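My main concern about presentation is that the manuscript never shows what a single data entry looks like. Each protein is reduced to its one-letter sequence and a matching series of backbone shape codes. For the editor and my fellow referees, an illustration may be useful. For illustration, here is how one protein appears when written out as sequence plus structure tokens:
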Amino acid sequence: MKHFFLSLVYLFLFEGCLAQGIQKILFVGNSLTYTNNLPELVSNEAKIRGIKLKNTMLAYPNYALVDHLKDGEVQKRIRNGKFDYVIVQQGPSSQEEGRRMLLESGKTLKMLCKQNGTQLVFFMVWPSQTYYYTFDGVIRNHREVATQNDAILCPVGEVWKDYFESQKDYSLYGSDGFHPSPKGSRLAAKVIIDTIFGNE
């Protein structure tokens, strides 16, 4: 009986050590996150590098961060999920209204993450091809919100812009000229892993 009890103790300790090696991430966003299942692509990229992730996604069409906060679900997830990282995303946010929403929601989310021992991460997106000229505003506003909230910034949009301007290749966009193609989402996943866990 004593040996059986000790075996159970060792088993629980072993499982606990395994669990400690898994990073838990909550993705909060809209169709720019769920198109091509970005969280799964992030897990795939991490697996290649020997990083274990457990990802959860909270994403709905046309949602801004303020919509998630109004629903109240994101607060419950962060309080109860014991996440290591919360990666948040809204639309391009290049104009003043989008900037204001990003900053206000970002402040609320930062407080929530701090209270629950979670690192806040902003996922910088990109404008549609039609509004490509607003790209600098997208980059500027996302950098501002990350700085103000002492948060990690995954500069996906900036990497996209560099690619477009160096390669003259716009295949990161999907057929609608806004949502990412599979190639665009794979690049986004790589940037997210590079930013949070470091380059290979």
The radius of gyration is 19 Å. The CA atoms of residues 135 and 190 lie 20 Å apart. The chain has a mean pLDDT of 91.
